[in-house]
Design a protein that fits this description.
The chain has about 375 residues and is α+β, with helices and mostly antiparallel strands. The chain has helices spanning about 1-40, 315-320, 355-365, and strands spanning about 45-50, 55-60, 65-70, 80, 115, 140-150, 155, 155-165, 175-185, 190-200, 205, 215-220, 230-235, 240-245, 255, 275-280, 285-290, 300-305, 310-315, 330, 335-345.
Amino acid sequence: MRYSHLNIYRSIGYVFIAYFIMACSGEKRESNAEAESVSVEEKVKIELVRKDADKKVEVLFNGELFTAYLYPETIAKPVLYPLKSAQGGLLTRGYPLEPRSGERVDHPHHIGLWLNYGDVNGLDFWNNSDAIPADKMGSYGSIIHREINNISSGDDKAELEVTSDWIGPKGEVLLTENTVFIFSIEGNKRIIDRITELTAGEKEVSFKDNKEGMLGIRLARELEHPADKAEIFTDASGQVTDVPTMNNEGVTGMYHSSEGLKGHDVWGTRAKWMNLTGEISGEKVSLAIFDHPDNVGYPTYWHARGYGLYAANPLGQKAMSGGKEELNFKLNAGESVTFRHRIVVYSGIHASDEMVEADFGGFKGN
């Protein structure tokens, strides 16, 4: 009798275990289904929208503006403007296109994200803007958009290929630029790859060593470094710009170099990447720029200022090194050079040095 009772208890136990396994299996299937559903929902549609009449191509992430390729001739170069975080925070300064209250109004040629240089066959492409007096324009060059060669959109990635000419004041073409922008997303990271090929025209092109260059971003006021004194900056042609002291409320920027330097100390130093951390309207953000090992002058010098100019300059080595180095880069007629950079917007976090280094490792192998 005792063994009979034990057998009954064992049978009940087996039934309970079998039921438990089936229930867990069902929960796992439901969990997997939910994970697959979330994965589908989290796919981001990146769409490029041409607006030829407005001279721009908008870059939309799930229908929301991330940035736009702008090419009106009034700003002397094509730019990406604005740059926005995942929560819609404006990472770039509004002035001079869309001035916002409380921001700086110096250097009107600093617009969004751009690439140019301060001395190309003696012409200043960097400082050109509609603020230059007509009688001074003979010293400046402009980058004129010519055509959109390719445009493609899709899930998690989109691509824009454009051609521009670097021209002198008399309309002569010094360089033809072919640039591919690849827009992509990985989790909380919005990524811009910029691959720019510059080809000399019928004559040799000289990039005289100059501190005004090359890949630049002008940051929103919130991402500047707090400053307690006015500053004066002089460009390569001797033009003086006063940068006044301003209210530091909400100003949170901090540069972090791949070489371990921080803040104002990064200016005039070499690094393979730079990361700018800060906060906009309660959202933590990081904005990193990667220099590719195949670029001329790698690792680049950084023309990164606390007042909001954030630039990588591989060609301006004399000014950056205090005269210890010099690079006067040249292209023979018909010769080309390619510059590859990656810009990463981390939303919701202050990306650590280790995180940025890991992401750079993935970029440099491309």
